[in-house]
Amino acid sequence: MTTIFPFRLEQALSKLYAAFSDGSLHPGCCTACAVGTICDNKDMWKHMTDAHGSIVLNYVGKVNEAFGKRFYGYLPSELLQIEAVFLRACGYELPISRRSMKPTNPQGDEVMFNGMRAVIHYLCELDGVQDVMDIQEQFFPATAVKKALSDV
Fold first, then answer.
1. HSE value, Cβ hemisphere, 13 Å, CA-based, for 129
2. What range defines the domain where residue 138 resides?
3. Count of structural domains within the chain
4. Distances in Å between the alpha carbon of 15 and those of 10, 25, 31, 54, 103?
5. H or E segment at 51?
6. CB-facing half-sphere around the CA of 48: CA atoms within 13 A
7. Does residue 131 form part of some domain?
8. Across-strand partners of 74?
9. Report field, pTM of the whole predicted structure over 0.70
10. pLDDT single digits (tens) 50-76
C-alpha cells in the first residue's frame, strides 16, 4: 500500500531522517535542530521568537504569520511548535535558559531518536496523516479481520 504524503511532510521527513542518520541532528544548535534541519540548516526561524523553545511569536513572527508567510511549507507558529515538541522530547525544560533542565548527553542516540520520533508524530498530526512510525498499524491494520488461533 502506497501512501501519498503532502509535499512539506515528505520533505521534512526526508531531511530529519538524513540528519538523524548522519549524526548532524543537534537540539542545542539552531541550524541543526529539528526546525533548522527542516529549513535547510538555516537559522532564519529563530528570529520568530525571543527565546529558544518558546512557542510565543515575537513581532517578526506575528507579522509573518499575519501575512500567511510559510517557510518550507510551515507557518511561523508551526515551526515554533515543532521545535518545542523536539526539545521537550529530548529532555529540555522550555523555554531554554541558563537555569533550564537539559539532557546530560544532548546528542545521545536515545535522546535524538526520542526527539525525532516526537517531531515525526507531530508533523503527521499537523497534516492529518497517520503516524508513519506507528509500526503496529503495519502489522494490524484497522480493517483486517482478526482470527483466533482456533481458526488457523
1. 20
2. 7-151
3. 1
4. 9, 10, 12, 23, 23
5. none
6. 30
7. yes
8. 71
9. yes
10. 999 999 999 999 999 999 999 999 999
